[in-house]
Amino acid sequence: MTSGNKQPMVQFKGIFKRFGNVVAVEKMDFDIEAGSLVTLLGPSGCGKTTLLRMVAGLEEPTEGDIFIKGARINDTPIHKRNLGMIFQNYALFPHKTIFDNVAFGLKYRSVSKEQIREKVTRALEMVRLPGVENRMPSQLSGGQQQRIAMARAIVIEPDVLLMDEPLSALDENLREEMRREVDNLQQMLGVTTIFVTHDQREALSMSDKILVMKDGSKQQEGHPETVYNEPANHFVADFLGHSNFIQGEVIGIDSDHITVKIETGDVLVAKNRGGFSTGDRVEMIVRAQRFDAFRKDGFTPQEGMNSFQGRIKDRSYMGGEVSYFIELGTEREIHVISLMRTRIYNIGEEVSVQVSPHHCHLIPLE
Amino acid sequence: MKSGNWKPWALLAPSLSAVFFLLVIPVCFIVVYSFWLRAPSGADIPAFQFGNYAKFFEDFFYPKILIRTIRISFETVIVCVIMGYIPAYYFYRSQSRYKKAFLLLIMLPFWVSFIIRTMSWINIMGDTGLINHFLLKIGLIQSPISMLYNEFTVLMGLIMYLLPFMVLNIYVSLEGIDKSLLEAARCMGCTEWQAFREVTLPLSLPGVSAGCLLVFVLTAGTYLPPMILGGPSNDMIANLIFKRVIGTLDWPFGSAISVILLSLLFVIVWTYNRYLGINQIFKSFQGN
């Protein structure tokens, strides 16, 4: 039992999953708080879906235990787990009406006919599709089918809602809308949700907690802001957002700052979050959006800020923002995404770039 | 007319002409023949009269054979569905890497002549066949048991011939079922059996019905199993045609029976297409 006052809804303890010689999930220890929305994030093949399917019972862990509400469920058959699962392709029964699809789980839960009708109606209202009971799934659009899949999963009042890349089959605009809808619905119902995605924006915008995975093992877990701003390693920093990686060596430490001498010979300052000592080889991570670019003429660096000189090597205009690749003195270039508070710079133009130590995050060099 | 419209027709031309010259025209000949008269001398006299059809329905002898044909066809269909669903389902669920090889084995019988395959039952079940030989040898019986030349052996021959069609049709239909549908059913509280009943079975019915139609039509038109494995009282309609045309050279009457059989099958196929759609049959030949 955990020391906290609240017992986690789902717990993974030392989970391994092997398919033959392939390790799909490796030594996974992870708790999911009741009522929270947790995202399993990672590139395809990282084991996130396997982990989700193990909760559902569709895969068995090779080693380790899974607990729901404190009870070990490894040996509980799939149909007795009381979980709601939403599949990437919706998996609506094509031969059943929407009513029968949504009522499906209730039919196996000794609910009276009247109550089924009532619950189905309410679930369809919740996903904002009332009155489609008599239609067939093929008569609905992709987004509507996804809503029905959601209604079908929540109508049984599951202990945990499992979503396997539910939005990835939808087009961009609809995905955004559905993302907010899933988020609202989850908060309204307060149902513990595990959401699998490879889309960082989905993960960052919806989650209470993100679990970043790679090659079956946990890379980092934490609040979206923590994972984004303080990535635990190179992979996490690279996978989420656009990052610049600058290698260097710690040459000085005071209570607030760590001074790092980088490859180019320049000296940069990062905020001291602890954990490093002089002489450590480090990698400095700076998000592309954290840099500010200025015209070179008449630029004076602000006190306490890191600054560089460079030349615009390449740029791409992306509507809301401009993405620049800026060549520094040497071989090195940095990626800067500017929200165009100043004018758009031309290729070949000399610029000064500035970034606050606060936005320079250090990780040990791998 | 847009230029380039000729291309599909050019590509279709060989098969269309084959169908036209080898199927449509002969069938027209048969229809025409069915109205002709047969002189007592044996000569065919061109005419337009319904005497041949009247003869068929004149007493109960011929309609009885038609009814027997329909009955045997239904029996074959039912046994093929039951015997075909099980292996098809097994292949569908199988994770074995030899699955493709197993499916090939289902096709294996097609590599051996249908006549040879049918005749081989005589070597197994005949009076001097394998089974009788064995039973005599171990002394269980004193004289051979007569097992052949009854409706049971006819049915057996038909099933042996038609089962692969049923298995393949059902298999393709099963293979087309999205496996996440089953997982969804399981997650919502179905046991494996309930999930089969709710999802797998209903979604495989198109394949089952396509297999049924194919088996029915093929059974109703076949004459070899009754001829080789059946007795005189097991004749089906195609045997009757064979005997009239080849045996007594009565082309007009043989043609009339053919037209009756053709009309019966047409009604069945038309009804099927009306309610279930014929497309499903082609799916099983497209593979996945």
What would your notes on this structure say?
The complex is a heterodimer of chains A (366) and B (288). Helices cover 23% and strands 35% of the residues of chain A. By secondary structure, chain A is of the alpha+beta class. Chain A folds into two domains: 10-235, P-loop containing nucleotide triphosphate hydrolases (Rossmann fold, 3-Layer(aba) Sandwich); 244-364, OB fold (Dihydrolipoamide Acetyltransferase, E2P) (Beta Barrel), CATH 2.40.50. With 288 residues, chain B is mainly alpha-helical. In chain B, strands 1-2 form a two-stranded antiparallel ribbon. In chain B, helix 1 packs across helix 12 (251-275), helix 7 (151-175) packs across helix 9 (192-220) and helix 7 (151-175) packs across helix 13 (279-286). The model of chain B has no long low-confidence stretch (mean pLDDT 91). Classes of the chains: A alpha+beta (366), B mainly alpha (288). The interface between A and B is medium-sized, with 27 and 17 residues.
The assigned structural class of chain A equals: alpha+beta
* Poorly predicted runs of 5 or more residues of chain B: none
Proportion of residues in β-strands of chain B: under 5%
CATH class of the largest domain in chain A: Alpha Beta
Please, how many domains of chain B? 1
Strand line-up of the largest beta sheet of chain A: 6-7-8-3-9-10
Cα-to-Cα separation, first versus last residue of chain A: 35 Å
Key features?
heterodimer, A: 366 residues, alpha+beta, Rossmann fold, OB fold (Dihydrolipoamide Acetyltransferase, E2P), six-stranded mixed sheet, five-stranded antiparallel sheet, 20 strands, B: 288 residues, mainly alpha
Please specify the SSE layout and strand pairing:
The complex is a heterodimer of chains A (366) and B (288).
Chain A: E1 10-19, E2 22-32, E3 37-41, H1 48-56, E4 63-68, E5 71-72, E6 83-86, H2 98-107, H3 113-126, H4 142-154, E7 160-164, H5 172-189, E8 192-197, H6 200-206, E9 209-214, E10 217-222, H7 224-229, H8 234-239, E11 243-253, E12 257-262, E13 267-271, E14 281-287, E15 292-295, E16 306-317, E17 322-327, E18 333-338, E19 350-355, E20 361-364
Chain B: H1 6-33, E1 37-38, E2 44-45, H2 51-58, H3 61-93, H4 99-107, H5 114-125, H6 130-137, H7 151-175, H8 179-187, H9 192-220, H10 224-229, H11 237-247, H12 251-275, H13 279-286
Antiparallel strand pairs in B: 1-2
Helix pairs in contact in B: 1-12, 2-12, 3-7, 3-9, 7-9, 7-13, 8-9, 11-12
